[in-house]
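Researcher: Please predict.
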Amino acid sequence: MDNDVSAGSTTTIVGRLALDVTLLAFGLGYTDVIDGAQASDNAVGLFLLLFALVVLSLTVTGGDQLDRGTYGLFLVSLVLLAVARFADADSLAEVGGWFAVAAGAVAWYAATAAAAHWPTAVPRRAAGRGVTAHG
């Protein structure tokens, strides 16, 4: 594993923690653990799709693997939630909520890893089994 991990700035850590709390609350709201206020399904679906476009750009341009993983999970969540709103599919919304919870968990690990100097990158392996690098 790569132990040369930069802790990042305090702003980065606080930002990741804020994202963590937001994603957990957002996800738990859609899993029916927390009950929320009602709005027009079409309005909410459109908002979720527009927000998904923002998250798509964050996924493509994001920082390290954990950031891209967080944004990727959140993107899947937003798309599932938007489709669920348009199709009035509560079970699909619950699945989308769990994707947001997973994104929140990854964001929490990223913030904690930066503060505790834990690894934030997955080591890369050779393409096949038994392949070693010669040099």
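Model: The radius of gyration is 18 Å.
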